[in-house]
Amino acid sequence: MFFTYLLVASVTLVYLFHWYATRTYDYWKKRNVTGPPPAPLFGNLLDSALRRKNIAVVHKEIYEAFPNEKMVGMYRMTTPCLMLRDLDMIKSVLIKDFDLFSDRGVSFSEKGLGNNLFHADSEKWRILRSRFSPVFTSGKLKNMVHLLEHCGDRFIDYLRDLCSARREHEVHSLIQRYTVSSISACAFGMDLDSISGKQHILKKIDNLIFSPTFIDELDMMFPGILRKLKIEPFPKEIPDFFEQLVATVLTQRQWAPSSRNDFMDLILELRQQGVIQGNKRTVDTEPALLELTNDIIAAQAFVFYAGGYETSANTMSFMLYELAKSPDVQEKLIAEVDEVLKKYDGKMTYEALSEMPYMDKVLAETLRLYPIVDPLQRRAQQDYTIPGTEVTVKKGQLILISTHGIHRDEKHYPDPEKFDPERFSPENSSARHTCAYMPFGTGPRSCIGLRFAKLQSRMCIAKVLSEFRVQRSQRTAPDMRFGPRRFILASAGGNFLNIIPRKT
């Protein structure tokens, strides 16, 4: 009899678990929205949840599976979400009706690192964005160029020594040495001497930030649970590192702005106000206020560091990979770099970097093939009917956009797998839909640091190509594969290339 009860109880538990794990899976069918069949509990993210595929690859595959649909109903674990494929619909969400989708839906805490520009909810984001945007004006970027050039010169010195011993190198880890030193110098005014051997500390921080944990799947299954339970998705080492970093810089500057005009100077200027306020959204409303606490400062340091370090390193690594595969493109770019350097007596000034249009095309084409942060997502602030349809996204539901899918869609880019910088000639760019190219997002909540990222990348690539060529090595992958254990688009198994001095 005991075994009978045990069997009945086991069957009942299995049934209840299956019911719970599939209870939402008729949501899109009831609304006549086509989509891929979900797996129990995991929805359409089985491969990413089990770390078999990068999350961007999973969304790209869903995008490509429904070429004739304007939207696709899908499930993040058990949570219904809507993927948009139609560019006009995407424009409505990201630009025209932005106020209804100003939240990314990734906020996890009102304290600590959750206050950063990327994760913050709509109201806090509006204040932070309006106050931190001035750090990326043309004037501020010009002031940073000499810091970037100094970091670039040290990096080239390091490469010379390295390449005198051997040709083949894993280029992503090399570029990380430049990006960590440049973001440290430009944002915090610190020389972390990353090129001389302190990389192991920062590598640990990198892995902790960009490696997914199952906390992420928990938040997909129960949207908002991290915020409700005040759960930090990062281990304690991360907030401790950035709190200590900020404290060190503030102490060095004696809690007052210096003459560096960098990110920390802006922080100190704002801190002297005590409370910062956002812009008035309407004539009848009062501007929102935010106290600039140490938590807020550390949170911005975290997101500026993470964005300027790893995303840029991946972009430049992919760029060198494509240049090695396309020697004709590389030679044309080298010729442009040489010509501009000759004009400016070998100095990489802001003006010199601005006179490299082919560099901009190559960088843009790299970001088309490799949009680092993907998918884009926005959370509905209220019920919203998708224009031209009868489909309503409920308040709190997510809109997902596969940038990788759009960028490799032959409807927008003929022969999409080909690396062709001329896609970004002025004529070709102006003929494309606004939302056919979104490596930094688009609309008011696009990446705040995109201008710095481009300047940082142009400086490094120009420095490298002024003295070296890159070629395929025996370990160069014929096609780029993406690591499944990264939040962002990153190469799997490393990106190996030969780095050859142009002059012996």
List keywords for this structure.
single chain; 504 residues; alpha+beta; 4-stranded mixed beta sheet; 11 strands; globular
Architecture overview:
- With 504 residues, the chain is α+β, with helices and mostly antiparallel strands.
- The protein is 50% helix and 9% strand.
- It is built from 20 helices and eleven strands.
- The strands form four sheets. It has a four-stranded mixed beta sheet. A three-stranded antiparallel beta sheet has the order 3-11-10.
- The longest helix has 32 residues, at 294-325.
Write the layout of secondary structure elements.
Layout: H1 2-22, H2 27-30, H3 46-49, H4 55-65, E1 71-76, E2 79-84, H5 87-96, H6 122-132, H7 138-165, E3 168-170, H8 171-188, H9 199-210, H10 214-221, H11 225-229, H12 237-252, H13 263-271, E4 275-277, E5 289-291, H14 294-325, H15 327-343, H16 350-354, H17 357-369, E6 376-379, E7 384-385, E8 392-393, E9 398-401, H18 403-407, H19 426-431, H20 450-467, E10 468-472, E11 496-501
Reported for the largest beta sheet, the result is: 4 strands, mixed
Give the terminus-to-terminus CA distance.
86 Å
Can you tell me the overall shape? Answer: globular
Radius of gyration: 24 Å
Strand content: 5-15%
Summarize the model shown.
This protein is of the alpha+beta class.
